[in-house]
Design goal:
By secondary structure, this protein is α/β, with parallel strands linked by helices. Helix content is about 40%, strand content about 15%.
């Protein structure tokens, strides 16, 4: 904010844009300070005014040269929308202008009066700017009087919630507090992180919808019967396309309710994984992590119980080469055929049948699954012996994890620098950095809701496996290791089930 306003032009009730160090301008109002704000360190030698921030319901002393009139600069600061918290704040100040009924950020939320406020402002002026003031005598009634409608805009009192740590947050701002000021207490807060952003509801999958992509593939379904274990974020999309391409499918899922829509669409439902193996010629498994994959095979009523020489098993879970080899040894030890098939893609690509499939293991099983792979993806590769596909997948996932981290940190830096994040994406799209992944995650960051397309916990799991592979091969991976630590922290903040783009929360705060 290069242009300045003189301190004398600011008065209680003025609607303004206020800029804290490291943040973009935010809509607020010149306000009486709450009692606890008086304990904040005062800006040395600078004139400052107390600002109430809309949307976050917080107060802070802001130097007058970092404050601009709201209406005058409204178009400049709102021409490109930012994250949802900023938009909520803009809506709050506009509602306040339209419906001024009570004092917001003044009488309703602050202690003191105009006389006290002027004393505080005087303390914040440079020593050279302070002038002796004539004592003005006021009647008791005048001293108690609150700002009038002409002196203060007003509106409904905002609702504030307190977390278990007694930190006030805005009930309708998903990103939370961008402008909270550190407050001294018995235990000072080390991190000023926002409340966890609520993950948007995942729209229900329309199992019966046949995509245009699938129609154009003209898949000729195999006469074999296929089993599928796991109807999660990726498995659901793949099974949908198997059914809609004419394949005979029998399904199982730990949460049986998920099977209902697929049964309506023509699938059969089995009670246990071993029942699926018994009924199917070839069974696919796509679950959350290596340990669950092992439990599916070696556990009670698991895959091994009904595995015979006439059966095939395809492991599609994101796993490491060692886990894949353990499962392969067990399957082939029972006479069955084994193949690992790793998935490159996201929820949307799984539903559209546009995945990239990386296979390794039994070549005859790969040939028997060609019609399934055609329905599930746009390309499939056979990479050789067991373990090769898992290693290739981890290499690609490592690159993806670091790339997403770079986008998140870049967007965070842009916001701190006062740049418009939307401008960053528009420019990025015109450069050699432009690619679907970076643009998709950048837009998710811009919108601030992080609907799950690729779960953050799955990315962190793959990074962990990639780092383990690097340890075994004595290959240093310092950038990936640093990114993994931030993903782990984002999980601890409650973003495990959010999209991987929620990495931004930890990068920004």
């Amino acid at each position: 904010m290069s242009d300045t306003m003189s301190g004398s032009s600011l008065k209680l009730g003025d609607l303004v844009w206020a800029k804290m160090k490291g943040f973009s301008p935010w809509p607020g109002k010149i306000s009486l300070p709450p009692k606890d704000l008086k304990r904040i360190s005062k800006p040395p030698g600078k004139a400052a005014s107390c600002v109430y921030f809309f949307g976050t319901d917080n107060f802070a002393w802001i130097e007058d040269f970092n404050i601009k009139q709201y209406q005058e600069f409204k178009e400049q600061f709102t021409k490109s929308s930012k994250n949802r918290a900023f938009l909520d704040a803009c809506r709050a100040i506009e509602n306040h202008i339209v419906n001024p009924t009570e004092a917001v950020g003044t009488a309703a939320t602050a202690d003191g009066n105009e006389e006290e406020y002027e004393k505080l402002k005087e303390e914040k002026k440079p020593a050279s700017a302070k002038k002796p003031k004539k004592e003005v005598k006021r009647t008791p009634a005048e001293r108690k009087r609150r700002p009038s409608a002409s002196e203060s805009d007003s509106g409904s009192t905002p609702i504030r919630k307190k977390t278990k740590n007694n930190v006030e947050t805005n009930s309708h701002s998903p990103i939370g507090n961008h402008h909270s000021s550190p407050r001294k207490s018995g235990l000072s807060r080390i991190l000023d992180q926002p409340a966890t952003v609520q993950r948007p509801d995942t729209p229900p999958l329309d199992v019966g919808r046949v995509t245009q992509t699938l129609k154009e593939k003209n898949v000729q379904p195999s006469s074999s019967k296929f089993g599928f274990l796991g109807l999660g974020i990726m498995g659901s999309g793949m099974v949908k396309n198997l059914l809609n391409s004419g394949h005979k499918v029998i399904v199982w899922n730990r949460t049986t309710e998920k099977c209902a829509d697929f049964v309506k669409a023509g699938a059969e439902e089995a009670l246990t994984p071993s029942d699926v193996i018994l009924a199917a010629d070839v069974t696919f498994s796509c679950v959350s992590d290596p340990q669950v994959a092992k439990d599916m095979v070696f556990g009670n009523c698991g895959v091994l119980q009904e595995m015979t020489s006439t059966k095939g098993f395809v492991e599609m879970t994101g796993i490491d080469a060692e886990t894949s080899q353990d499962i392969a040894d067990a399957i082939t030890g029972k006479g069955g055929r084994y193949m690992e098939t790793q998935i490159q893609g996201s929820k949307v690509q799984a539903e559209e049948g546009m995945l990239v499939l990386l296979a390794a293991g039994d070549r005859t099983l790969f040939d028997d699954c060609k019609s399934c792979f055609q329905a599930m993806g746009k390309s499939s590769f056979f990479l050789g012996e067991v373990g090769c596909a898992s290693k290739m997948n981890l290499v690609l996932q490592l690159m993806m994890g670091v790339a997403v981290a770079g986008v998140a940190e870049g967007m965070a830096l842009a916001d701190r620098a006062g740049l418009q994040q939307r401008d960053v994406l528009e420019i990025l799209e015109l450069t050699t950095l432009s690619c679907p992944l970076l643009l998709e995650k950048g837009k998710a960051i811009l919108e601030g809701a992080f609907p799950t397309n690729l779960p953050l916990q799955h990315m962190q799991k793959d990074l962990k496996l990639s780092l383990s592979m690097g340890d075994q091969l004595e290959q240093p991976l310092p950038v990936s290791a640093a990114a993994n630590e931030v993903y782990k922290h984002a999980k601890r903040l409650g973003y495990a089930d959010h999209d991987v783009s929620a990495f931004y929360i930890r990068a920004r705060f």
